[in-house]
C-alpha cells in the first residue's frame, strides 16, 4: 500500500466510501474509519499500519500545500 488510492480501495472492500469534498477532511475521516476497523479486528495490523502511514504522509503534504496557498 503506497498511495491514498490504495487506502481508498482497502476501505472500499468493506463498503466504506469517503468523499466530503475537502481533501484534508477526507483523510481524517479515513483515519477514523481505519481505526474502527482495526479495533474491531476486521483488518490485519500490517494493513492498518501501512494505511495509516500513507494517510499521515498525505495529511502532512496537504497541510503544507494549504499553508503555501495562504
Automatic annotation (TrEMBL):
<dbReference type="Pfam" id="PF06014">
    <property type="entry name" value="YqgQ-like"/>
</dbReference>
<dbReference type="InterPro" id="IPR023164">
    <property type="entry name" value="YqgQ-like_sf"/>
</dbReference>
<protein>
    <submittedName>
        <fullName>YqgQ family protein</fullName>
    </submittedName>
</protein>
<dbReference type="InterPro" id="IPR009256">
    <property type="entry name" value="YqgQ-like"/>
</dbReference>
Amino acid at each position: 500500500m503506497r498511495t491514498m488510492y490504495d487506502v481508498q480501495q482497502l476501505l472500499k472492500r468493506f463498503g466504506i466510501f469517503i468523499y466530503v469534498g475537502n481533501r484534508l477532511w477526507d483523510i481524517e475521516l479515513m483515519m477514523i474509519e481505519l481505526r474502527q476497523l482495526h479495533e474491531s479486528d476486521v483488518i490485519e495490523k500490517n494493513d492498518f499500519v501501512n494505511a495509516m502511514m500513507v494517510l499521515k504522509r498525505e495529511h502532512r503534504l496537504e497541510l503544507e500545500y494549504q499553508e503555501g496557498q495562504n
